[in-house]
């Protein structure tokens, strides 16, 4: 998103700051106090099964829901309820400003208006909201009726859609629970992930009536995709045994 105000000189108080224009545009999308995304078109109805799963997972995880993140100093999480935190990162839209241009380094900054401000925004969407439709909505939201007639342009980089698994059938829910109890001695739990795996959406479209068991070895200090990625072999072996138990149950169910 690029906003342009004045091209030379210090005209504060007369010419609008390009940063203030950018800030007003972002406030069309996000409530800066709460982080709530304002347009209803970016929200989706959360299936009751997902709400129940988030509550169950949060009860098991406890404060790990929050402790897994490296908060700086006395920074507090946006919510203090574990289930709501899980739903926030999986089923509610959220905005991050991940880049900016037009700002000089502080050591080189002068007391004048900059000609333009560019922001790179990342809007995470609920899995049932179409990414391409949301991208068009963002372009319309930002470019329509720009503040004080400033020139505003929105250039999309990528609009990706998430994926929501079909409702879990009783046989699969029971098979997963039985396997977890047999291998780990504890009940199973399910939760979403605040990202997208395009391959799963492709499988879901190709096999709309299929049931899915998506799991993996990812826990504290795992550092997935990092140069120091860590895999707990003992846990991986037990998880493999759980998957084998579920496959066997599927075969027995016919």
Topology:
Layout: E1 2-4, H1 18-29, H2 48-61, H3 64-67, H4 82-91, E2 94-101, E3 116-124, H5 131-143, E4 151-153, H6 170-184, H7 198-206, H8 233-253
Antiparallel strand pairs: 1-3, 1-4, 2-3
Helix pairs in contact: 2-4, 6-8
**What is the highest CATH level, the class of the largest domain?**
Alpha Beta
Largest sheet: 4 strands, antiparallel
Tell me the count of domains.
2
Tell me, briefly, the overall form: elongated
CATH architectural arrangement of the largest domain: 2-Layer Sandwich
- Report the β-strand fraction as a percent range: 5-15%
The Cα radius of gyration reads 23 Å
How would you explain this protein's 3D organization?
- The chain has helices at residues 18-29, 48-61, 64-67, 82-91, 131-143, 170-184, 198-206, 233-253, and strands at residues 2-4, 94-101, 116-124, 151-153.
- The chain is α+β, with helices and mostly antiparallel strands and 254 residues long.
- The chain has two domains: 2-46 and 92-153, 2-Layer Sandwich (Alpha-Beta Plaits), CATH 3.30.70; 170-253.
- Helix 2 (48-61) crosses helix 4 and helix 6 packs antiparallel against helix 8.
- The longest helix has 21 residues, at 233-253.
- It starts with a strand and ends with a helix.
- The relative contact order is 0.15.
